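Support request, please re-run this one:
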Amino acid sequence: MAHAFDINPLDATFGAVVTGVKLADLDDPGWHALHAAWLDHALLVFPDQHLTRAQQIAFARRFGPLEFEMAAISNVRSDGTLRIEKDNDDVMKILKGNMGWHADSTYMPVQAKGAVFSAEVVPGIGGQTGFADMRAAYEALDDVRKERVGRLQAHHSLHYSQSKLGHETKKADGEYSGYGLHDGPSPLRPLVKTHPETGRKSLLIGRHAHAIPGMAPGESERFLQELIDFACQPPRIYHHDWAPGDAVLWDNRCLLHQATPWDMSQKRIMWHSRIAGDPASETALAR
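Re-run finished. Output below.
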């Protein structure tokens, strides 16, 4: 018997809840079964895991090298004090920016493969994480639109997406001046991505995408927003209500995700481990 856990599909075009497994104790046959389920469902939800940081990093590493081991996604400072929403500091601007649909690290030279994300402290209401199936979105396009998006590319930039919130990302003294806010050209990526392991096509869009070559800026922005509005609709979306100890694993090569608002006078502490993309399939296009 390869595994004893249960995989229960969500009421959506993707995703499943996995029960009867402790990720910290997963053996190799169990991991292979989970990996196959991940490629099929793209999002796996694991309730009641309560992973230590070391356990989360070790689980994420089974899927490949990590882009970074662990980052806190939180409105709580390292000294335990709460960030005040009205101060709207740079970290708060990043948290707000993450509420737009996006894929991780499309603004880097190599797009991320996926992520393990877990909940330590969750607010009483709000703060869900949404996911959207870009495979089903692509497949739902009519033939004319499929043919059109198949010919197009877009640039991806965190400077661009954050600037829409009034975030001055170029200033050197910002509290969040690091990941993704580098100098240099913004990567160019096709709007249709072929998954390197499953061969399924999906849309590669989201808030970092902009400036489609050959289109006027306004037309490009409208076209990309229309795609997001079309793609991120039921039954292609799922919003996860977090409980402390939950962990999720998602495939960044075919899903978008978003944070959602919560009462920021309440603490929300989440931990993100990002799985690095394979340069053979996730590298941006040469110009």
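Confidence is low (pLDDT under 50) at residues 171-177. The longest helix spans residues 217-231.
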